[in-house]
Design a protein that fits this description.
alpha/beta; Protein-Tyrosine Phosphatase, Chain A; eight-stranded mixed beta sheet; six-stranded mixed beta sheet; 20 helices; 17 strands; about 15% strand; metal ion binding; Mur-like_cat_sf
């Protein structure tokens, strides 16, 4: 048995945190020598300092709760001062240094893009595990809430994150793909990782990534993929922060997804439907079998209400692992849902409590169900008891989910939604009809080549007056002319317009939406996350 094998899990956790964080200690100046003059602010704290102390005290109380529940070994006291300094809101970032860091982020991103694409899933976790082992297993330095499913993962992750932060915890969130900046994929305390921290993280992990690349290629295998590198960076950045808990969304599938090198304390299964069939299988049972690969022994599994073919797959997997299963429609439910200005008012029943008069600033019944999953998961994370009504109300009222039926402009109304499969289009249609009084909707649509184009366009047809086919800025994009030909078969020729450029597509759609001067016209940009990200950037929401 090696020294490494002889260590207890908590020893490895502490070692991982120390190794990841010790590289930062020499970057901060030593405190001034004692005996000097005491600043006036030290004698009379101003309101900002008092507020900062209150925030820190709340975090420490929350961390103590995790220690008591046995989920987390507590923050490393050797880095608390470092963390406080790095999160000090009074620190002014040099704009020149920030611009230089952003340039370096772009260079690093471009370099990582030369690797195998993120949808190229290899049935192995060995390369990711090897890099993380060399880094000291940073993914074991904090508990993980792991999320898999076909639709709703990112929105659910954002609600989970808000609930945890409302309880005073420092959070990491790993999601994909990104809308505006690659830094969104790794979020700390609800915000994309800073350019400086992104660069530092890459510098930390790059030598080990290259080492494993060389070993793999020498054995006839591939380099780490684009997605695998970002998973390594995410887990390392979370240990380096350090966070109290990480909310991690799978990229695709579950069993062989690179994020699955971490064991979840709680797992969430959002709605499972058909997507990525060439990689995950061509039946719902096969796809579900891949998704449940994230489940771990003795964990709590919080599941959406699933298709009949999926339900037994989830139930049997949880039972085999001795995991506690909490299911929407059985153990919890959205009791009531009423439209409200800017969102909806909810009554949510979970295994632990019923939460009333909860405002959620997201549209659609599917978002209410996502919020329900999130609340139940956070209850489970804290041991299964109820959360305070105030925590739930404040957290959900402050949630946002960019690119999910998001209003980005008025006059004319422009909405964006990242629906990219038939199931996503169906819930988009329901939410659009329920939440917006629109008479004429013109779609701007661009798809990825590997998507069910016929199913997506058929789902969009009843809600769109006309459609503008365009191209997302990615090599994976569906050929515009081929997509337009399919659209003409579904929509009829006179309802279909084509332009390669998204700016021209939005302008054309806006003109068609306002055709005749009738009120109630709108533009809907949908079909892929990449296209929605471009539209948000053009319309200055990115």
């Amino acid at each position: 048995m090696t020294d490494r094998d002889d260590q207890r899990p908590e020893d490895r956790t502490d070692r991982a945190r120390r190794e990841m964080l010790s590289r930062r200690t020499d970057e901060h100046a030593a405190p001034p020598a004692s005996g000097g003059p005491t600043p006036a602010s030290a004698e009379t704290p101003d309101s900002a300092e008092l507020e900062a102390r209150e925030v820190q005290a709340e975090h420490d109380r929350a961390a103590q709760e995790l220690v008591a529940s046995g989920l987390f070994s507590g923050p490393d006291p050797t880095v608390i001062d470092d963390v406080r300094a790095s999160s000090d809101p009074t620190v002014v970032v040099d704009p020149v240094a920030r611009a230089q860091a952003e340039t370096e982020v772009h260079r690093i991103y471009t370099e990582i893009l030369t690797r195998a694409p993120e949808h190229d899933v290899q049935p192995s976790l060995d390369r990711v595990r090897e890099v993380l082992d060399l880094l000291g297993e940073p993914q074991r330095a904090y508990p993980v809430i792991h999320i898999a499913g076909t639709n709703g993962k990112t929105s659910t992750a954002r609600v989970v994150e808000r609930l945890l932060r409302e309880r005073g915890l420092r959070t990491g969130r790993f999601t994909s793909p990104h809308l505006s900046t690659v830094r969104e994929r790794i979020a700390l305390d609800g915000e994309p990782i800073s350019p400086e921290a992104f660069v530092r993280t890459w510098e930390d992990v790059a030598p080990y990534v290259e080492m494993v690349d060389e070993r793999s290629r020498a054995a006839g295998g591939p380099r780490l993929s684009f997605f695998e590198v970002f998973v390594v960076m995410g887990y390392a950045a979370f240990a380096d922060a350090p966070v109290d808990v990480a909310v991690v969304e799978t990229g695709m599938g579950g069993r062989w997804d690179a994020t699955n090198v971490a064991d979840g304390t709680v797992e969430i299964l959002t709605s499972i439907s058909r997507d990525h069939e060439q990689w995950l299988g061509d039946t719902l049972e096969a796809i579900a079998g891949e998704k449940v690969g994230i489940l771990t022994p003795g964990s709590t599994v919080v599941s959406a209400e699933q298709h009949d073919e999926v339900t037994p797959v989830v139930r049997d997997a949880a039972h085999a692992l001795g995991a506690r299963l909490v299911v929407d429609g059985q153990d919890m439910e959205v009791v009531d849902r009423q439209l409200a200005v800017g969102g909806q008012m909810l009554v949510l029943r979970t295994p632990a409590a019923t939460y009333t008069d909860v405002f959620l600033p997201l549209h659609g019944a599917h978002q209410a169900r996502n919020a329900l999953l999130a609340v139940a998961a956070v209850e489970a994370f804290f041991g299964g008891g109820s959360l305070s009504g105030e925590v739930v109300e404040h957290a959900l009222a402050s949630v946002d989910s960019p690119g999910r039926l998001e209003l980005v402009r008025t006059s004319p109304t422009v909405l964006v939604d990242a629906a990219h499969n038939p199931a996503g289009v169906e819930v988009l249609r329901e939410a659009l009809e329920e939440s917006f009084d629109l008479r004429r909707v013109v779609g701007v649509v661009g798809l990825m080549a590997d998507k069910d184009a016929e199913g997506i366009l058929s789902g969009l047809e009843p809600m769109l007056t006309e459609i503008v086919i365009t191209r997302a800025a990615t090599d994976r994009a569906h050929d515009v002319e081929d997509l337009a030909e399919l659209a003409r078969d579904i929509f009829d020729e006179d309802r279909v317009h084509v332009t390669e450029r998204i700016d021209e597509a939005i302008d054309l759609a806006a003109a068609r939406a306002e055709y005749g001067g009738e009120p109630g016209g709108a533009v809907l940009v949908t079909g892929s996350v990449v296209l929605v990200g471009e539209a948000r950037l053009l319309l200055r929401r990115g």
